[in-house]
Design brief:
The chain is an alpha/beta fold and 294 residues long. The chain has helices at 32-39, 61-64, 83-92, 100-106, 122-134, 152-167, 179-185, 203-208, 226-231, 254-266, 281-289; strands at residues 2-3, 6-7, 21-25, 68-71, 140-144, 171-175, 188-193, 196-201, 214-218, 237-242, 245-249, 273-277. It is a peripheral membrane protein.
Length: 294
């Protein structure tokens, strides 16, 4: 996809597996929203091939729309329409919609069900957009920044709903800037930068790939480390960069933590502190895309 001389999506290739929650992460301007809108059929790609549920999202739009739910980043409702009216209208477009009153209660929309869209807060508009996306019981759900502007309770309710939809076989594709959201919800993550996929995998695979997980121990300085190094799993190492500060590097797992703690105990050495540090998905994201503001 190009906008003038700017190539917003540049040979981006990815696949979303059925029945999963897949997150697309990237800095501002990386091409996430353009990619999602192309898959939704709102934009026709200038080159390449896009298939959603096996169909062309532009040429087969009439066949595809009843099977897909879309939560837009903004808008989607008429300014003068009331919340419940808009949701009932969306429900009327589907053969077997969800129960509207139950959905309003589930998403905590009762307090503004009779409020016009123009008077809704940003968080209330987000909840209405989510309700509009799922009311038709979609097979595939696109969520663009689903928890942006939500308070903690609404955000958690959104997470619970996405997890519940997955249990019922719904495939969800979401974009988000919240790394904890991606880590909590996602089966798979694609990190996008400059219009290309630069890394893919589960949150655990991505955070562990190339990571430098460590155990930091504070204890009496000058201990002989050879015996401990012999006990460590393959691929692990230990050093004392500062007197009394011991750093164990490797695949941090319960057996490794146990081996380190047991060795200090066997030496009758009092451990003053032990800190386990694991790289997060956010750490990996910044490592791949850089920390500079775009």
């Amino acid at each position: 996809m190009r906008y003038g001389d700017v190539t917003a999506v540049d040979g981006l290739t990815l696949r979303v597996e059925p029945g999963t929650v897949t997150s697309i992460l990237g800095p501002n301007g990386a091409g996430k929203t353009t990619t999602i809108e192309t898959c939704e059929g709102f934009r026709r790609p200038h080159a390449g091939r896009v298939r959603v549920l096996g169909l062309d999202p532009v040429a087969d739009a009439a066949e595809l729309r009843p099977r897909v739910g879309v939560m837009l980043q903004s808008g989607g409702a008429w300014l003068g329409v009331r919340t419940e009216e808009m949701l009932r209208h969306m429900a009327s477009l589907h053969a077997h919609p969800l129960d509207v009153p139950a959905l309003i209660e589930r998403l905590g929309m009762g307090s503004f069900a009779r409020t016009s869209y123009r008077r809704l807060s940003g968080g209330e508009r987000q909840r209405l957009s989510l309700a509009m996306a799922i009311v038709g019981r979609p097979e595939l759900l696109f969520l663009d920044e689903p928890s942006a502007g939500l308070d903690p309770q609404s955000r958690r309710a959104t997470w619970d709903l996405v997890a519940e939809l997955r249990e019922h076989g719904v495939t969800t594709v979401l974009t988000t800037h919240f790394m904890d959201e991606a880590e909590t919800l996602s089966d798979f993550v694609h990190i996008v930068d400059s219009g290309r996929v630069i890394a893919s995998g589960s949150p655990g695979e991505l955070s562990g790939d190339g990571s430098r997980n460590t155990i930091r121990v504070t204890a009496r300085p000058g201990l002989a480390l050879g015996p401990l190094a012999d006990r460590l799993p393959t691929g692990s190492s230990i050093e004392e960069p500062v007197p009394g500060q011991y750093v164990v590097t490797g695949d941090v797992c319960p057996p490794l933590v146990t081996a380190v703690a047991r060795w200090f105990s066997d030496q009758d050495v009092l451990v003053e502190s032990m800190l386990v540090e694991r790289q997060s998905l956010e750490d990996r994201f910044l490592e791949l895309t850089g920390k500079a503001l775009r």
